[in-house]
């Protein structure tokens, strides 16, 4: 564990940006859904998928076990996901009220899993099953490669100028 932490710390320099400015950042995604959302979760996953990134899928407690199993089997049956092994389906689901503290608790649980299993990511993005990207992953990774790792919120309008320059 100590070696992973040292490796993580070595990737940062004093101003908080990547030590190698041409290095493409790695993203960690939480894609969450409720009962009936498993197909949309797979659609979102496929739309934002990049082999450098980490992904965690969480179906809340109201989803039936059969749907959760089907989601896990969809991930396991995909040859790319299986080979790269960067997509996880949370086996322990939480009851999530999307306007309350349970969503924050679920997000923190996923972040804890990601930190425990892999420190090989720079940014965390929280998506719901109904989200769909407006830019390609390559464009998104390019934008993130130009940002300091000390930034924790990005305004959309500032991104468009970076893509055009």
TrEMBL record:
Annotated Low complexity bias: 13-22
Lineage: superkingdom: Eukaryota
The protein, known as: (rape) hypothetical protein
Pfam families membership: Branch
Alphabetical UniProt keywords: Glycoprotein, Glycosyltransferase, Membrane, Transferase
Gene that specifies this protein: BnaC07g50350D
Broad class of where this protein is predominantly found: membrane
GO cellular component, one term: membrane
Record InterPro entries: GLCAT14A/B/C (IPR044610), Glyco_trans_14 (IPR003406)
Region (Disordered): 1-22
Cellular location(s): Membrane
Membrane topology: Single-pass type II membrane protein
Biased composition (Basic and acidic residues): 1-10
Species, as recorded: Brassica napus (Rape)
An annotated Gene Ontology molecular function: glucuronosyltransferase activity
Tagged with keyword Nucleotidyltransferase: no
Keyword Cell inner membrane: no
């Amino acid at each position: 564990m100590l070696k992973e932490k040292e490796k993580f710390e070595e990737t940062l320099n004093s101003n908080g940006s990547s030590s190698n400015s041409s290095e493409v950042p790695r993203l960690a995604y939480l894609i969450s859904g409720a009962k009936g959302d498993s197909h949309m979760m797979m659609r979102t996953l496929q739309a934002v998928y990049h082999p450098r990134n980490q992904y965690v899928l969480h179906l809340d407690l109201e989803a039936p076990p059969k749907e959760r199993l089907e989601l896990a089997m969809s991930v396991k049956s995909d040859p790319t996901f299986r080979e790269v092994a960067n997509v996880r389906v949370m086996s322990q689901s939480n009851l999530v009220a999307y306007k309350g503290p349970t969503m924050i608790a679920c997000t923190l649980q996923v972040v804890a899993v990601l930190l425990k299993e892999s420190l090989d990511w720079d940014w965390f993005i929280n998506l719901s099953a109904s989200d769909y990207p407006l830019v390609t992953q390559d464009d998104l990774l390019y934008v993130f490669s130009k940002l300091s790792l000390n930034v924790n919120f990005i305004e959309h309008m500032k991104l468009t100028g970076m893509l055009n320059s």
